[in-house]
Structure formats: structure tokens, C-alpha cells
Amino acid sequence: MSGVNIQGLSIKFGHNEVIKGLDLQVHEGEFLVLLGPSGCGKSTLLHSIAGLIAVSGGRIHIGGRDMTEAEPSERGIGMVFQSYALYPTMTVEKNMSFGLRVAGTPKAEIARRVDKAARMLQLTPLLDRKPAQLSGGQRQRVAIGRALVREAGVFLFDEPLSNLDAELRRELKLLHQTLGSTMIYVTHDQVEAMTLASRIVVMKGGVIQQIGTPAEVYETPANLFVAGFLGAPAINLVPATVAADGVSLHGALPLRLPAGKVGAGQGVVLGIRPEHLRLQDDGRWRATVQLVEPMGNHQVVWMTLGGQGLSALVHDGRRVAAGDTLAFDLDESRLSIFDAGSEQRL
Ligand SMILES: Nc1ncnc2c1ncn2[C@@H]1O[C@H](COP(=O)(O)OP(=O)(O)OP(=O)(O)O)[C@@H](O)[C@H]1O
Ligand SMILES: [Mg+2]
Question: Can you give the residue ranges of the ABC transporter domain (predicted)?
């Protein structure tokens, strides 16, 4: 088992700096998820940890050793690639054992590791099949198995479950609980990130925006980008201007903000999670229902108030229809307040 310590990492392709002075400490045994939109540098960061691309600046330590210039095979990592292409002519067993055979691992040891990984991933009955005879999910399991047999201290996963079922996700989490290895997992899917991670690293344009537990990044997003990236339905963002008294807000949602946080005339954006809007008859605001989405165990109610769209979650089974006027309220202590200019949390 090993942690990973990245300091001042810079990666350039020509003049394009894709990773910009990035610092990151991955704790031993944690499940760290790198989350961000397409092109933000997630795969590039992972490839640099694996030693597949040269760094332009900075250091990478794995298990306490400086591995910045080490060969991929020396780094003690197992990796599942974004394009996890299996060798089509090889059986599942041969696909899983390929790396070990190339490395000259003794036959009995290869058999032990493949057997163990196959059992963990429920691949044992499929070991003699070729990739073409497998479902998409089974192929993804083989790609994970190929990394697991390395019995490495650090596993790197580049979107291995994209478009995959929640069940395999739970299996991977159980696998991590069993193995206790350090795992760094890349995804652009916030549900995957929330459900798998010990900690989430939110990235944008090669720069870390926030690092925290799923609860921390969800409940106290560091900036507008993080607020908008996590949560479905998305957080309600309500622009407002602070009144002359320095605490009250004009506009669609007149309310009072904590004194000292904001100043008179300051432009702010309120971040309100849909689950924090409470429908209640004596609520301070009235909004018109535009659209209702039944979700089975709850409803998503889309409303408008003075031109501002707002979504709310309703769990109590009441009947709500388009055109209804609903009274609602919110708990100010659950608000996120961002500066409209810097977009940072206040
Ligand atoms: N070999 C390369 N040469 C030049 N530019 C590259 C190279 N690899 C990646 N890039 C660029 O670096 C940026 C980051 O790419 P990267 O693959 O790391 O993104 P990503 O976050 O993994 O995105 P996705 O979610 O789409 O996989 C992109 O703008 C990409 O075009
Ligand atoms: Mg990628």
C-alpha cells in the first residue's frame, strides 16, 4: 500500500499547459476521485502518475519514493485505461495474465493471482471466453481484473465504468474495502464521484478547484463551478444585490444574510440546493409551478418566481400540477453565498 504525493506538477503539450502547478496528496488506502468536465486534464494527470507521459515540472512521489523519472513498471501501480481495449484474440484468462507473463512472473503465482481476481470480479466462469463473447460490463470487469492481478499498492482507473450499472460500482467499492489499496479514479460523472469517493478532487482547466469529502464539496462548494458541477437537479443559482443595510437582498428572494459576510451594493449569487426549498403554507415566498417531474419516491417541481427559475424536491406525495401557486421557504443556514465577481464562496 502506498500514498501518492504530487508537488508543483506541470504538464505541457507544446505551448499548451494542460496541468498547471498542481499539488495533491493522495493518502494511503483512500479512494480518491478526480472529477471534472471533458478536457480538464484528468487522464493527463493519471498518465503522469503512471509514468506514461513526461512531466514538464514538479515531482511525483509514490510510497515515499521519488518516481518522477521512474519507468511505469517500477512504480508499483496497476492501471485501467479509458479505452480499455482487450486483446481480441486472447481469452479472458490470457488477457488478465498478459502483463504478468511479460514480466516473467512464475506460472503458479500467475494462476493464483488470476484465480483470486477472477473470483472477486465474478469472472471465473468466463475465463475461457474471448472478449467478443462478453457483454460490455463483463469486458469492463476483465479490464479491472487485468489491473488487479498486479497486486499493486496504487490502482489508477480512467473512467472504467462509463455508462455502467450501479451494481459494478458497488462491487468496486466493496473491492476497495476488501483490498484497502490506494485508488485514484477518474470520472466526469458526479454520481460516480459522490458514491465512490473517500475524497473528491474537482478539476477545471488543469487546476484543482476543491478537494474534500463528498459531503464537503456538495454542501460547501468552494466556488460557483463546483456548486454547479455537483448535484442533480442542479443547485439553484439566484443572482442578487446586497441592500444599503449590508445584509438584506432585493429581488426575487428578499431575505437577510449573515452580517459581516457581505457588504452594501455587493453583487452575490445565492446557491440553494433543491432539497433545501421547503414547500409550506406559511412560507415567505410564492412561486408558480411550470413543470413537475415524478421520480417515483419524490417529485422535482420546477417553479418560477419573478423571472427566476427554481427547482424543489417534494417527498410528501402531495399532488402538484403546472400552474399551481406554491408557498415555500428555506433555511438560510443551508445557503451557499458566492461573490458575483470572483465566483468564490463567501
Ligand atoms: N498527447 C497530447 N498532445 C496534445 N494535447 C493533448 C494530448 N493529450 C491530451 N491533450 C490535451 O490536453 C487536454 C486534457 O486532456 P485529457 O485527456 O487529460 O482530458 P480529460 O479530462 O481526461 O477529458 P475526458 O473526460 O474527455 O477524457 C485536452 O485539451 C487535450 O486536447
Ligand atoms: Mg480522459
Answer: 4-230
